[in-house]
Amino acid sequence: MHISKPKSPLEQLRPVLNLLADGEVHSGESLGAALGVSRAAVWKQLQKLTHYGLVLESVKGRGYRLPGGLNLLSSDAVEAGLDAAARDLLRQLIVCDEVDSTNAQLLTRLERDDGHGVAMLAERQTAGRGRRGRSWISPFSAGINLSIGWQFSGGVQLLEGLSLAVGVALARALEEFGVPDVRLKWPNDVWCRGRKLAGVLLELSGDLTDRCGVVVGIGLNVGLRGDSAAAIDQPWIDLHSVRPGIDRNRLAAAMLNRLLPLLRSYTEPGPERGFSAYRDAWLALDQFAGRPVRLQSASREWCGTAAGVDSSGALILDMDGERKLFHGGEVSLREDGE
Ligand code: ATP
Ligand code: BTN
């Protein structure tokens, strides 16, 4: 006997979303006919769209439309954009409408020894995570929420500087699409025009001294609607406001094309192992180079001038000629005066 899982509220709306994705006006009657339901049932479904932050426009006497349409994720479209190297390294691509957190899902897969080479993209996260228990706001179809699972031997020290190298890979993928003014903020942000465009979250599993796994999670804003972004408590930016029209599937593929080989070369012996291969590129993209900054931990604060990063990815802070190194973890960098 086959028992099918009940559809989530969002999955139930998928057929109507697929119809409205073109951004054109659809009458209630035509939607009802295409979906095989009454006009009243169509109306009920349309009302639910606002719950996901989608703005439905009612066009008098003609019907409804989603202004600007939706550029929905599709596994076929992402796969079509992968190059040969990424195809070789990708064991499974999962594209889903809604999860708690793609990082949480992949950590579970790694713990079951089934997460290596798996990439997951979600249209929406209900509990997207940032560092240290903070949240990542990820409304439906507004960004790219991507996690990749990777298993390797040799202990967690091999990953030194990885969040910075991932930033370099993301900046290069964005440059492919002509996104201007991309910069990196130590240790895990991609900025554009002085605001946060994307964040990277690495999470670990397994025996940290030997065979372990890492989940590389990336959240990137593509078209964040203002009301759903109201909870973001720092200046943010999305791709629509700097370079509109970028296809999310093509961009996700470009990210995988860079990130999968990066993960392999980082964790396997060879000339590109570790952060040193990425340091110069990171320094060239440093948002805060030579600027006055503050570093905050839970209990202390240091002020000085940001002086780049060393070959392990540690931040160099120049405090009146005395240099101090900071290793990711528990410190946050802020522009001095903020
Ligand atoms: P850090 O401590 O590394 O300096 P941070 O303040 O950016 O950095 P993170 O944990 O890296 O903190 O990221 C989570 C933070 O990012 C949230 O607390 C919020 O301020 C912000 N944020 C959440 N969602 C988004 C989003 N979609 N776009 C931009 N910023 C976001
Ligand atoms: C940060 O800036 O602190 C990192 C944000 C990382 C967000 C991404 S979205 C995909 C993946 N899943 C999560 O729950 N978080 C990461």
Automatic annotation (TrEMBL):
Residues involved in biotin binding: 101-103, 125, 129-131, 196
Domain of life: Bacteria
Boundaries of every BPL/LPL catalytic domain copy: 84-267
Regions crossing the membrane: none
Annotated DNA-binding residue span(s): 28-47
PANTHER family in the cross-refs: BIOTIN PROTEIN LIGASE, BIOTIN--PROTEIN LIGASE
Protein name as catalogued: Bifunctional ligase/repressor BirA
